[in-house]
Design a protein that fits this description.
It is a single chain. The chain is α/β, with parallel strands linked by helices. The protein has a five-stranded mixed beta sheet. Helix 2 packs across helix 14, helix 4 crosses helix 5 and helix 13 runs antiparallel to helix 14. It starts with a helix and ends in an 8-residue tail after the last helix.
Length: 317
């Protein structure tokens, strides 16, 4: 009897080990069912932070993520998405409308700021409708902040020339050098349209890396720049944003754009990323940018801290 019990015990242990092994294999298979997701970004701080948020959220939900960050300007990253080199990046509604679709800003939006929620922003409605048909790409819910372009000058320049609005530049722009990214200098929603709308031209313009714009302005290398409204260096350097009194700049609400192929294979990606819908306001995004640009923190660390603070991913165990 003792030998029988011992034999049965050995068999049960062996069967248990086999079962555990099969369960492990099943678990690996389940993990492997989730596709590897490639996340891209443009070549400036905010875009990289947003891409890290996307990547960290997906990784926390069991996805393997490849990062293709700092790829370049809008055209480069958009083409990477459409061609399948990346699966997701975070785009801006105004950029999608004007720079990608080549459409005009809806008349109703001139001078008005729409709310940051899916279905309530006419610009969002247009891009969300056109992208699937033209590019096989879906817009997910906006995250809440509007990183519109703005014209910035130093406080000294504003005071010396009594500048409060962009229209106030009309009498002095010809003597000024305007600094901007190479993309802004040629985009339809950039410098050419700005000068046409306001009826003046700057005396000179200078293409600069996004990270050098603010130092070039504060050091006097240029007299005005194209700034990002959610850049934390604006208040830190005491810069003045001129009011866009003619409503030239469209809304630029940020939202993930995702390939339909990925969503068809893994629909939960949309639910995971839509957790950030309406969760990031302008001031918060400016602070996150400032932590990288002035605080010297890595984008991935800033993104992780934000997501952990809001309970969207688990902290270190």
């Amino acid at each position: 009897m003792g030998r029988f019990i011992k034999t049965m015990t050995t068999l049960l242990v062996a069967l248990g080990l086999i079962g555990a092994s099969l369960a492990g294999i099943s678990g690996v298979a389940a993990q492997d069912d989730k596709p590897t997701v490639t996340v891209g970004s443009k070549d400036f701080t905010e875009s990289i932070i947003l891409a890290e948020m996307v990547a960290l959220l997906l990784e926390d939900n069991g996805y393997t993520v490849e990062r293709q960050l700092n790829l370049g300007g809008t055209a480069v990253v958009h083409e990477a998405l459409v061609s399948g080199e990346i699966d997701i990046y975070v785009e801006y509604t105004g950029t999608g409308l004007l720079a990608i679709l080549g459409q005009d800003l809806p008349e109703a939006e001139a001078g008005a700021t729409p709310v940051a929620a899916a279905g309530q922003d006419p610009v969002y409605d247009i891009v969300a409708s056109e992208y699937p048909e033209q590019f096989g790409v879906e817009w997910l819910d906006p995250w809440g902040f509007n990183n519109t372009y703005a014209v910035a000058v130093t406080a000294e320049t504003a005071e010396a020339n009594d500048l409060q609005t962009v229209s106030d530049l009309e009498g002095v722009a010809g003597d000024m050098t305007f600094g901007a990214t190479q993309e802004f200098l040629v985009r339809p929603d950039g410098l050419p349209g700005l000068e046409e709308t306001y009826g003046f031209e700057f005396g000179d313009d200078q293409g600069l890396d996004p990270g050098l714009l603010y130092s070039a302005l504060s050091e006097g290398d240029v007299d005005a720049i194209s700034a990002f409204a959610t850049d934390g260096r604006i208040p830190a350097l005491g810069l003045v944003l001129l009011e866009d009194d003619m409503g030239y700049f469209p809304p630029y609400f940020a939202a993930p754009v995702v390939s339909q192929e990925l969503l068809a294979e893994s629909p939960e990606v949309a639910d995971i990323l839509n957790q950030l819908s309406g969760q990031v306001d302008d001031a918060t995004m400016a602070d996150l940018n400032f932590q990288v640009d002035d605080g010297g923190n890595e984008p991935v660390d800033v993104a992780r801290a934000f997501l952990e603070e809001h309970g969207l991913i688990g902290g270190d165990s």
